[in-house]
Amino acid sequence: MAATVTKAGPYFASGEISFSSLRTNFKETSSGSISASELRRNTSVTDKNPIVPDATENASISTGNNLAISQFRNSIKYYYITQTGTDTNFDIGAQSWNSNLNKNILKWMYMNGTVGSSTSSAAAILSSTAHNLTIDVSGSILGSSGRGGGTAGAPAISGESGGNGLNINSSGANNIVVFVRNTANIFGGGGGGERGKTGATGANGTCAFVQYFQGGCGCPGCPGGWQDLGCGQNYGNHCSRRQQCGCWGDCWWQSNGDTRYNNCKFVYSVSGGLGGSGGNGGPGRGYNNQSGSLSGAAGALGGAKGTCTSGGSYETTPQDGGNGETGGNGGDYGQVGQSTFNTGDGGAAGRAISGSNYSVTGTLNTNTIKGLYNP
Q1: For residues 297 and 328, what is the distance between their CA atoms, to the nearest angstrom?
Q2: Residue 99: phi, psi to the nearest 5?
Q3: Three-state DSSP class for residue 212
């Protein structure tokens, strides 16, 4: 982190203080007149360009009729803070403003480096009351990447929202301006992709096997839950015999009939395969994913259908489970994440600039700003 303070001033640290020098430094003109009334310290927070501004450094300058030139010793006209290097979750209000943020002195916050966020918090934030502040951006302010649905820390299905770039939530503020230079990158994070839908469960089927139940001279019944396919006869396999004798004392065995059997079929269900789980959604583009893939993950393969047991065979064939859907892609900077056929949504896009009580000017195009930015 690097944030340096500079000032227009301090003026008149030593030596003579003349009206002409006061005119030059505070009225900012080298000619013409300047009156004592113009040199009084102006404390109105709605004045966008006070000649002698209210500032901590200017506290000794009178706001009334007891004005004295000596009161301008070490006075200032403007206040500047310049950010360079790389910072995360940069708090504009926490910088070294010397209690001038809520005073009417014109102030500039130069964002020349890179600020970003890897969390849901904005990359840069101003939540303190401020007046006459210009946030001058020539560097990068990058919101966080939204995580894909189903990934660690994200919702189970929907993609996570992308983070905001710059958030301004300055209550009671006056004249806060975001000035966008042509080298600026103020980008909201891309939303995460939605998790893919679980594949369809395969249709169930049935298996069957046939078994012969042996009887005697009568047809045996099938066991409970079995289908009766009809009786058959075991020819030559006698169910019973009796001895017969003739008048001359000769005897023989005579069959009373062949044995009977029943042809029985047992049918049972087998399950279709389970659907494969959907793939996780891809991450959005953001400070923590500036060049990585945005692609969602492939869904898992569907489960295999059930098989027949006990020597049976398919009567109606079950189906394998369907493959899981590929997860949705993450959105680019300032874009929503891709939705799938699952029950959620792709993550919302982060805003380039969010909040209220500010205006935006400068070079405004798709290269400098990605995402919504108007209050």
Answers
A1: 8
A2: 60, 25
A3: strand
Residue 81 phi/psi, 5-degree rounding, is -130, 135
Please write the tens of the pLDDT for every residue from 348-365.
Answer: 999 999 999 999 999 999
What are the DSSP calls for 245-276, one per residue?
E-TTS-EEEEE--EEEEEEEEEEEEEPPPPPP
Taking only the tens place, the pLDDT of each residue in 336-351 is: 999 999 999 999 999 9
Name residues whose C-beta falls within 8 Å of residue 59's C-beta, 6 or more positions apart in sequence. Answer: none
User: How many CA atoms lie within 13 Å of 4's alpha carbon, on the beta-carbon side?
Assistant: 5
Where do we find the tokens 């790389």? Answer: 86
Q: How far apart are CA 160 and CA 149, in angstroms?
A: 7
Backbone angles phi, psi at 103, to 5 degrees: -100, 170
Distances in Å between the Cα of 99 and the Cα atoms of 54, 89, 103, 311, 364 are: 11, 21, 8, 88, 32
**Separation between Cα atoms, residue 76 and residue 80, nearest integer Å:** 11
* DSSP H or E stretch at residue 354: strand 353-356
Residue 131 to residue 46: CA distance in whole angstroms:
8
Within a 13 Å sphere around the CA of 347, how many CA atoms are in the beta-carbon half? 45
Q: Is 46 exposed, middle or buried (0-12, 13-18, 19+ CB in 10 A)?
A: exposed
Q: Rounded to whole angstroms, how far apart are CA atoms 329 and 70?
A: 66
Of 202, 358, 331, 191, nearest to 269 by C-alpha is 202
Tokens 């206040």 found at: 79
Q: Which residues contact 322 (CB under 8 A, 6 or more apart)?
A: 199, 200, 201, 202, 275, 276, 302
Q: pTM (2 decimals)?
A: 0.85
**Closest of 371, 324, 287 to residue 157, by C-alpha:** 324
Please, are residues 353 and 168 in contact by the beta-carbon 8 Å criterion?
A: yes
Output the average pLDDT for the chain.
93
**Using CA atoms in the order 265, 271, 272, 278, what is the torsion angle rounded to 10 degrees?**
180
Q: Which of 283, 335, 339 is nearest to 154 (CA)?
A: 283
